[in-house]
């Protein structure tokens, strides 16, 4: 079975802090994705990566950066957290098409 | 870009009832997935279905790509089926998933 894990289920951070969200997959998938989910706005793609050290902007990359130093790990970085980044963050991975999601991280920025 | 519309937006069922959820998409797609988001927020894969019909227990899905729609059938619903069901499509420009707004299902005992 594909397994995608995320470092935290719940996270509370202060405005201005640097925040790291980690995602790890154990199925040797090339592709990894970060989404955020907000009521009324649905799921929106932040960044994705097709290979190690590769990254592509999604639909809402502003205020975020990513890092992929190893194939199995994809990190989302909030350089200076703001209250409008309070959201549910979902990581996914895929090989040829079907995407598998992690359990999500509910981030609150106060 | 591709638009994905799901209907109905909300659905309330009595346990044991059957239901059909619909997903319409505005352009040709490479593939389509159905997900169930559980109360804890995790997206569970239900079907990866470019065309035809697949079945998994009480759930089945049919995609008619030429007519740009997919249907998810839930039979003999249970309270554990409650949650939000999402349809998502892959566009022809790569592996980006485009999600519908979801159908929120509530199954009452």
Model regions low in confidence, pLDDT < 50 over at least 5 residues of chain B: none
Q: Mind telling me the CATH class of chain A? A: Mainly Beta
Question: In the residues of chain B, how many domains can be counted?
Answer: 1
Let me know the number of strands of chain A: 11
CATH architecture of chain A: Sandwich
CATH domain fold name of chain B: Immunoglobulin-like
| Overall pLDDT metric of chain B | 93
Major beta sheet summary of chain A: 7 strands, mixed
Q: How many distinct helices of chain B?
A: 0
State the CATH architecture of chain B. Answer: Sandwich
Order of helices and strands of chain B: EEEEEEEEEEE
Q: Most extensive interface, residues per chain? A: A-B, 21 and 20 residues
CATH superfamily of chain A: Immunoglobulins
> Considering the protein shown, what is the CATH homologous superfamily of chain B?
Immunoglobulins
How much helix, percentage-wise, in residues of chain B? under 10%
Would you tell me the structural class of the helices and strands of chain A? mainly beta
Shape type of chain A: globular
- Order of helix and strand elements from N to C terminus of chain A: EEEEEEEEEEE
């Amino acid at each position: 079975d594909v397994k995608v894990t995320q470092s935290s289920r719940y996270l509370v951070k202060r405005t201005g802090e640097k925040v790291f969200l980690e995602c790890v997959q154990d199925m040797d998938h090339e592709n990894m994705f970060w989404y955020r989910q907000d009521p009324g706005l649905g799921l929106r793609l932040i960044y994705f990566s097709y290979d190690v050290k590769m990254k592509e902007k999604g639909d809402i990359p502003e205020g975020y950066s990513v890092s992929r130093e190893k194939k199995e790990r994809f990190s989302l970085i909030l350089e200076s957290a703001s209250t409008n980044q309070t959201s549910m963050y979902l990581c996914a991975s895929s090989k040829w098409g079907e995407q598998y999601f992690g359990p999500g991280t509910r981030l609150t920025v106060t | 870009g591709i638009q994905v519309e799901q209907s109905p937006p909300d659905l309330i069922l009595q346990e044991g009832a059957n239901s059909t959820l619909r997903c319409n998409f505005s352009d040709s797609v490479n593939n389509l997935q159905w997900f169930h988001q559980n109360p804890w927020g995790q997206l569970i894969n239900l079907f990866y279905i470019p065309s035809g019909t697949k079945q998994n227990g009480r759930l089945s899905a049919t995609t008619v790509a030429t007519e740009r729609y997919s249907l998810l059938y839930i039979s003999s619903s249970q309270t554990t089926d409650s949650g939000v069901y999402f349809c998502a499509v892959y566009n022809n420009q790569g592996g980006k998933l485009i999600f519908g707004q979801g159908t929120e299902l509530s199954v009452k005992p």
